[in-house]
Amino acid sequence: xxxxxLDKIAQGGVYDHLGGGFHRYSTDIYWLVxxxxxxxxxxxxxxxxYLEAYQITKKYLYAEIVIETIEYILRDLTxxxxxxxxxxxxxxxxxxxxxxxxxxxxxxxxxxKETGELFCKFYGVDxxxxxxxxxxxxSKISKQEFSVINNxxxxxxxxxxxxxxxxxxxxxxxxVRPQLDNKIMVDWNGLTISALSLASRILRx
Length: 205
Prior knowledge:
The structure is a single chain. By secondary structure, the chain is mainly alpha-helical. Helix content is 53%, strand content 7%. It has 8 helices and 7 strands; from the N terminus they run αβββααβββααααβα. It has a 3-stranded antiparallel beta sheet. Strands 1-2 form a two-stranded antiparallel sheet. A two-stranded antiparallel ribbon has the order 5-6. α2 (40-57) runs antiparallel to α3 (60-76). The radius of gyration is 17 Å and the shape is globular.
């Protein structure tokens, strides 16, 4: 039950597949549409949950989720003094989730047709979208399964997707970001420090 839930969270839109980290909660039973706010304490607690699941199952997806979430914290929620900020808002330009949403045409224009179509196929992007005409990225299939279906190696799949994500991240960074809640709270920082320490010990990073 626990690992099934962690799998569904990792696959769904409640996880930021491009920039790492978790949105605050899902508004549906499929973990698809989140409330797009990101809270520091959610990152800390979910890092710990995925680390414990990784220790038991050795499933590499869980380690990837942890690493990407830590990268998000260090990149976007860390102050110049080393403390961790509290949250990022859900809205930008007075629209919830706008920073995180994509259209099929937008992705194809950035990545090119062949590579863009591969990315869209993996992350569930189509012309109709899954949220008000745009798409929340999701990942319903493993890289291994995707490689078999598309007759390319898993190594190639990982390489292509990583390059695509870097390009789309650069594009996304030019958008208006959600507002940062720059409070540094001792209790939430304690949770985060504990999670990072655990990750360092388990993943040896």
